[in-house]
Design a protein that fits this description.
The protein is built from 17 helices and 13 strands. With 476 residues, the protein is of the alpha/beta class. It has a single domain, classed as Alpha/Beta hydrolase fold, catalytic domain (Rossmann fold, 3-Layer(aba) Sandwich). Helix 14 packs across helix 16.
Length: 476
């Protein structure tokens, strides 16, 4: 069966399934190819007749095995500025809209990932779900205004803003309400939302930040240093995609903390200052925000390291790398020894807080101080995989309900399904304009602990999170 949507650019033909129609590979901007490679997204051209929207568009260039692409029936290329829309019906019902920005360190990922399939969430909540592809890696984040012009910076963010503008203008054709748009993002997608808010973007009405490493917005100096490593790309004319990907692999990101060489940078145009500074020094768009992290974000990454890596010295070196040379290493390590079983757990917990929990708390604390509705959470539902805990990406399986797509993240049994239903209910309450739990009201304010026995608690881990106040070098 098919479904039709009548947009300003022409008619789209999607696929109608059980309870929802899906429109895949919908272009929201002109292909960023040729002379448009280093330019902000441009409007898509109109088309005549009915355009097919039953297949996903190409994903942004990234390191991914060709066999994985082929298995999923996907292509990869620079013509990647497309989005996917799941809707109960392309009618005039004016449903709330959720626009989701994927994670992946702004170097990997795509909106057509099975984990992000929006059918279940759209049907259950009677909402419209949109996922977005945007430029990644060097093509989305190169800071080289001297090479390509001042509007060539933060192209991934510019793509995302363009997509949000397209949604405002066109989502009514898919049964959505352009006046009730929630933007959500996970990991680097949440970092992007914080950056958009810091830049004053007003193209959405509510925001959900999931597992965002919000300290990972780069200074001009850090972004310029990455560009300097890519200087060879300027030799011999415009490089090909394979050359760009090869150059990306050679970027030196140092020890810990992971530097995030492709995250947004403070370019003075799209972003004037670090989101953690903007949040506390001036008013951002006065919208409700739901934000949080998982309890054990970093464990899934440290799980790849051998146990013998985690010596006393390694843990101390990590603490110093995170907290700075002037920190009291003994105090930091001692604070994280409590409640942790192994040195691996201590090391992982420090990175979890430095990169994810503490900056998220600081961001929402500042937003709440201006009387904006804020709802803070920590996901404590554990992965069935030994050693992962409540790990990074587990929120995706629970929010979208696609547990079977990655059962190692949150499980796929009846208990996991009940947990997913509970998380979805709270997210949908927020998307619909409601309040899913008690508002966060500053340091020690209510934090919803989402797990087998969910409850909102006060004064949750205040002392540990205070260790990371003002520890982020990009502040300057």
């Amino acid at each position: 069966m098919t479904a039709l949507a009548h947009t300003s650019y022409g008619v789209l033909r999607g696929a109608a399934g059980e309870g929802a129609a899906v429109f895949r590979g919908v272009p929201y901007a002109a292909p960023p190819t040729g002379e448009r490679r280093w330019r902000p997204a441009q409007p898509v051209s109109n088309w005549s007749g009915v355009r097919d929207a039953t297949a996903f568009g190409p994903i942004a260039p990234q390191d991914i095995a060709p066999v994985r692409l082929a298995k999923r029936g996907l292509a990869m290329g620079e013509d990647c500025l497309t989005l996917n829309i799941w809707t109960p019906a392309a009618d005039d019902a004016r449903r709330p809209v959720l626009v989701f920005l994927h994670g992946g360190g702004q170097a990997q990922g795509h909106g057509s990932a099975p984990l992000l399939d929006g059918a279940r969430l759209a049907c259950r909540g009677d909402i419209v779900v949109v996922t977005v592809n945007f430029r990644l890696g060097v093509l989305g984040s190169l800071y080289a205004p001297d090479w390509h012009g001042p509007d060539s910076t933060n192209l991934a963010l510019r793509d995302q803003k363009h997509a949000l503008g397209w949604v405002r203008d066109e989502i009514a054709a898919f049964g959505g309400d352009p006046g009730a748009v929630t933007v959500a993002g996970q990991s680097s997608g949440a970092v992007a939302i914080a950056a958009l808010l810091a830049g004053g973007c007003d193209l959405f009405d509510r925001a959900i930040l999931q597992s965002g490493g919000l300290e990972r917005v780069r200074s001009r100096e850090a972004a310029s240093a990455v560009a300097a490593q890519l200087g060879a790309l300027r030799c011999g004319g415009e490089p090909g995609v394979d050359e760009i990907l090869a150059a990306q692999r050679g970027i030196d990101t140092g020890f810990v903390p992971p530097q995030g060489p492709f995250h947004p940078c403070i370019d003075g145009d799209v972003i004037a200052e670090h989101p953690l500074v903007a949040a506390r020094t001036r008013a951002m768009p006065a919208i409700p925000v739901l934000a949080g992290t998982t309890r054990d974000e970093w464990r899934i990454f440290d799980a790849a390291l051998d146990e013998n890596v985690f010596t006393e010295q390694y843990v101390r070196d990590r603490a110093r790398a995170l907290a700075g040379d002037a920190c009291d290493v003994d105090a930091v390590v001692t604070a994280y020894r409590a409640g942790q079983q192994t040195l691996r757990d201590v090391a992982s917990a420090m990175v979890t807080d430095y990169h994810f929990t503490a900056p998220t708390e600081q961001f929402v604390r500042a937003h709440a101080s201006r009387d904006n509705p804020v709802f803070r959470y920590e996901l404590q539902w554990p992965s069935p995989r030994m050693g992962f805990g409540a790990c990074h990406d587990s929120c995706l399986a629970l929010v979208f309900g696609n547990l079977e797509a990655a059962p190692a993240l949150a499980g796929a049994d009846a208990a996991a399904r009940r947990m997913s239903d509970a998380v979805q209910s709270r997210w949908l309450e927020f998307i619909r304009g409601g309040e899913p739990w008690e508002r966060y009201d500053g340091v020690g304010g209510p934090t919803m602990l989402l797990g087998a026995d969910s409850a909102a608690v006060r004064d949750y881990r205040v002392e540990q999170l205070a260790l990371w106040e003002n520890r982020y070098p990009a502040y300057g």
